[in-house]
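Open question from group meeting: does this chain pack into something compact, or does most of it stay loose? Before anyone orders reagents, we agreed to write out a predicted structure and look at it together. Recording both the input and the output here so the notebook holds the full record.
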Amino acid sequence: MTSEQPNARREIRTLTGPFEAYVLPRMAAALPRRVTPDHLTLLGMVAAVLIVAGYCLTNLSPWWMVLANAGLVAHWWADSLDGTLARVRRIERERYGYFVDHICDALSALLICTGLGLSPYMDFRVAQLLVVGYLMMNIYVHVATYAEGRFKLSYGRFGPTEVRLALFAVNVVVPFWNPPVHTLLGVPLRALDLAGLAVTGILLAVFLVCSMRDARELDRRDRAARVGGGPDGGRS
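Structure tokens returned:
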């Protein structure tokens, strides 16, 4: 679900943005009337569970990764389409949609990363660090939405769909190539572990840089508003 906070300006500039802007409204218009946005939100959560199941079952056979990737496709379809369907039918519930959407997003991220950590391809601790990185960025997005009135869904042309595409590609590769490449504190790390640590580092770096940048900008605006006779911009 891609609902935004009420009255927030939605910003998304991704590689797949033009494609999704073209195809998603048409998909939504083609859905039967009995299908509702809530059905799609629920389907997205079911898809997240399928991804977890696929990852866990790769301990038995790497071919179960097919189930994980099928879950990723279903998750993209449902998560991208529920908000679009509400807008196409003009049945938006902005506060409800914003709340449910991001609760489900956080839970889905926890499930997917936990599943990856329970697979034979990534150390569980690295997978949980990925969850921390995601949730830190999630916190930043929502605080910035409240403070600045803009709901930013993409960074560096990457958004949720690009992340899913990257994960899909990783799922195709790692059953066939994921060699041990380093040992850290006596723990052998595979290629996917190093990639997970790198992604976590990038997420935390973006969180810190964007937070400090926005704090300076908000301080400047509040000081200017106070000098200009506007509302008090001090911290509350």
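Observations to bring back to the group:
Strands lie at 9-11, 150-152, 180-184, 187-190.
Residues 106 and 135 are 7 Å apart (CA to CA).
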